[in-house]
Design a protein that fits this description.
Blueprint: H1 20-34, E1 45-47, E2 58-60, H2 61-71, H3 98-105, H4 107-112, H5 132-144, H6 157-170, H7 175-188, H8 199-207, E3 214-218, E4 264-268, H9 272-280, H10 282-287, H11 290-293, H12 309-317, H13 319-323, E5 328-334, E6 337-338, E7 348-356, H14 361-364, E8 371-376, H15 386-402, E9 405-409, E10 414-418, E11 420-427, H16 429-436, E12 456-457, E13 464-465, H17 503-510, E14 554-556, H18 558-573, H19 584-593, E15 602-604, E16 607-609, H20 619-630
Parallel strand pairs: 5-11, 11-14
Antiparallel strand pairs: 1-2, 3-4, 4-8, 5-7, 6-7, 7-8, 9-10, 12-13, 15-16
Helix pairs in contact: 1-2, 6-8
InterPro entries: Transpos_assoc (IPR029480), Transposase_21 (IPR004242)
Protein name: Transposase-associated domain-containing protein
Pfam family, one: Transposase_21
Length: 653
């Protein structure tokens, strides 16, 4: 008789964490495998039945157990035949619950609602008719279950179309080749077949998922978008600021030539249908209120952004918005990267991601809930002109705040008016300057101290320095405030930390600045730049009605900062040539600022010599560090193979 393994479909509990029932079931699976040594190879590996490996990849039992906890079991793997269990007779399989049978019936239903998370059951017992957008989506779900021909049990229309389109993309198949292949397949099928006859109709069917994108022409100099009133192709054929042509010149006869090809294109992925899709999933919709009614195991620990002061202040300031717990709170992040890392010609591409924070911690940072909203083209970074490309997203956010959009909640089976608000951005420090409008270069680059900074310019290093600026943030009476040796020599810190400006105060200061001009012939910097302020422009985020009330508007990505600081410290300790911060100029400045006589340059035989610092490793110590790094192993997918970068002979990374 088949055992009850319905726990395999209940990986998470009501709080979004790994359920105890599932943990116990995974241990049961591991014990079962260890009792069947025939399925374990000579290296101690077994087939991994997680949703990604799907019994195609072998791994150690420890990693298989971790994969199952992170991803869950592959669909339909109730009978562990690949791990030594005998196949159940057909009648015993009826012990599987009806709920799980629905889950494994058609994986293409899961594909349709991939943006909404796990599987659904949305059409039972509707208390209120879905709005037109939701009705269109559910109609597509029904078509996913429609057989490819009368009596077909292996394929539905959607499963066949998606596999064929994926095949075309994977093998770079031409459209004419695809159409010919489909014609041959249709001739082999019964007369009742319903397969779309060409690529155009197949693509139209998939586009009904409602998760498409818009192409918006842009000036390659980042001056403007051909958007809304400037989108007309006949009236706006060149940039109104720099005069750069909008379209590439056509070759040959201009009358019979192909369509206009713009120099630069912004890809914009509207976030409204993606947020609506979250509520179309019965399972995901119930978690969209987790920030309000989710269980916290320790109230003194911030386990979710909703526990922080910034979220609480936003709710207190905008009470009407907070009264509807299904209203979505969003975070935005962006960074540039080189698409062609191995190429000599760099290409800086800037994706902009939006994340809904209503979900529990275990869900909101998963890949399927991080929405790509903008794909900003290169080859150069937009810099301070990033606002030009953010225009479509900001316009959509203003609509979501002011008017909202009618959305169907599959959990409560009712329509409601969904609104959304952007709480903050997340970026590294250079991108912070692009998003906020406060320049991160120069003596005033600190966005906290601003004009009250205590930074100074190094006499020999010729760079701004913030050494010893942190002591003013220590409590009054702290021993470090009176320390005359460890920091700046003979300096006792008596000042208090500078007062942080509120959002309203910053907005009033920004309103005094000249309006930014993003053209190629843009004006110079605002008066007082670098002396009393570092504002380059008034950021486009200030157009959001609630932006000035946010307690935190921009967050720094700790991962980037930690990585950069570690690189500098590690290269200095390992004394990497050309990358160490312990150079002659640093020693000269050290003599002027600090009391470190044992580190000052020594003049011998007509030359200055740099005494070896106690924090610098010798060759033997560097080799030991390299041997340790060579042996490091990380879980699959968490880090690259750093051991390949180690040179044991020279003791270098």
């Amino acid at each position: 008789m088949a055992p009850d393994r319905s726990w395999m479909s209940r990986r998470q509990d009501c709080t979004g964490h790994l359920s105890e029932e599932f943990k116990k079931g995974v241990m049961e699976f591991v014990d079962f495998v260890e009792r069947n040594p025939t399925v374990i190879d000579s290296l101690g590996r077994i087939l991994c039945p997680c949703t990604k490996c799907k019994n195609r990849i072998r791994d150690e039992i420890f990693w298989v157990e971790k994969h199952l906890c992170d991803r869950g079991f592959m669909e339909g793997y109730i009978n562990w035949t690949a791990h030594g269990e005998e196949r159940w007779v057909e009648q015993d399989a009826t012990n599987v619950t009806q709920e799980h049978e629905e889950e494994i019936t058609n994986p293409y239903v899961d594909m349709v609602i991939d943006a909404a998370g796990d599987n659904l059951n949305v059409m039972e017992g509707l208390e209120e008719d879905p709005n037109p957008s939701a009705s269109k989506f559910y109609k597509l779900l029904r078509s996913a279950d429609e057989p490819l021909w009368d009596g077909c049990t292996k394929h539905t229309i959607l499963s066949a179309v998606t596999q064929l389109v994926n095949l075309k993309s994977e093998f770079n198949m031409s459209e004419s080749c695809y159409n010919r292949m489909v014609a041959i397949i249709k001739s082999m099928l019964p007369e009742s077949e319903k397969l779309p006859e060409d690529f155009y109709r197949s693509k139209t069917m998939i586009q009904e998922l409602g998760l498409g994108y818009e192409k918006i022409d842009a000036c390659p100099n980042h001056c403007m978008l051909y958007y809304k009133e400037t989108s007309d192709k006949t009236s706006y054929v060149a940039c109104t600021m720099c005069g750069h042509p909008r379209f590439k010149p056509k070759a040959g006869d201009t009358v019979n030539s192909s369509r206009d090809v713009p120099y630069s294109i912004l890809r914009y992925f509207p976030i409204t249908p993606r947020l609506q899709r979250l509520f179309m999933s019965k399972i995901t919709a119930q978690y969209m209120k987790w920030h309000v009614d989710g269980v916290r195991h320790d109230e003194s620990v911030i386990t979710h952004p909703a526990d922080a002061d910034a979220w609480k202040q936003f709710d207190a300031t905008h009470e009407v918005f907070a009264q509807e717990p299904r209203n979505v709170r969003l975070g935005l992040c962006t960074d540039g990267f080189n698409l062609f890392s191995g190429s000599k010609t760099p290409y800086s591409c800037w994706p902009v991601f939006v994340t809904p924070y209503n979900l529990p911690p275990s869900m909101c940072m998963r890949r399927e809930y991080i929405f790509l909203s903008l794909l900003i083209p290169g080859p150069k970074s937009p810099g301070k002109r990033l606002d030009v490309y953010l225009r479509p997203l900001i316009d959509e956010l203003k609509v979501l705040w002011d008017n909202g959009v009618t959305t169907y909640d599959a959990w409560e089976k009712k329509n409601f008016n969904m609104k959304a608000a952007l709480l903050w951005t997340i970026s590294d420090f250079p991108a912070y300057g692009m998003l906020s409008g406060w320049s991160t270069h120069g003596r005033l680059s600190c966005p906290i101290c601003m004009k009250n900074t205590k930074s100074f310019r190094l006499q020999h290093g010729a760079k701004p320095c913030w050494f010893d600026c942190h002591r003013q943030y220590l409590p009054v009476g702290h021993a470090f405030r009176r320390d005359r040796y460890s920091f700046k020599k003979s300096i006792v810190e008596k000042s208090f930390p500078p007062k942080r400006m509120s959002g309203v105060e910053i907005l009033n200061e920004l309103d005094k600045l000249d309006e930014a001009n993003f053209g190629a012939n843009s004006r110079g910097k605002n008066g007082g730049f670098g002396t009393i302020h570092n504002w380059v422009r008034k950021s486009i985020f200030w157009e959001l009605p609630y932006w000035s009330t946010n307690l935190i508007r921009h967050n720094l990505d700790i991962m980037h900062i930690e990585k950069n600081i570690f690189d500098n410290i590690f290269n200095t300790v390992m004394e990497v040539k050309g990358k160490s911060k312990d150079n002659a100029n640093a020693r000269e400045d050290l003599k002027l600022i600090c009391k470190r006589p044992n580190l000052e340059l020594v003049f011998e035989n007509g030359k200055y010599k740099k005494p070896k610092a106690t924090y610098v490793l010798d060759s033997q110590q560097r080799r030991i560090v390299c041997e340790w790094i060579k042996q490091l192993k990380f879980p699959n997918g968490y880090a690259s193979n750093i051991s390949r970068c180690v040179n044991l002979a020279d003791g270098k990374i």
